[in-house]
Amino acid sequence: xxxxxxxxxxxxxxxxxxxxxxxxxxxxxxxxxxxxxxxxxxxxxxxxxxxxxxxxxxxxxxxxxxxxxxxxxxxxxxxxxxxxxxxxxxxxxxxxxxxxxxxxxxxxxxxxxxxxxxxxxxxxxxxxxxxxxxxxxxxxxxxxxxxxxxxxx
Length: 153
Prior knowledge:
Elements: H1 3-14, E1 27-36, E2 39-43, E3 49-53, E4 69-74, E5 81-88, H2 91-99, H3 137-144
């Protein structure tokens, strides 16, 4: 299988190509921070925090950031690393879990519904452009006709 085909299949598998409910041993958790070496610190709905590992097939193809929700499966041989990532949740899968009443109530308030523009990157390095309207009588008469005054141009 070529590298492109492998990446396509891995992305579909990781980002919820098919909607299926979690198995008994799987749980939904929230990523708290990345620890490096494909390890992530997560928080369970009960408030417990531990490390999970990224499977080899996801590495260099999928990135998980702080605040993302993932589906994990416990691994028996883990002391520090107690689980492995199975799926990365997106907006559609979260909505599907909420419709089936499987979404943890502890995560309800932390992830509010965002608008369509909520996923767009905002550059915080630039100051926002602020515009002020003048209080002169010229701007009031021109604003009624839909034209801009010379001061605002």
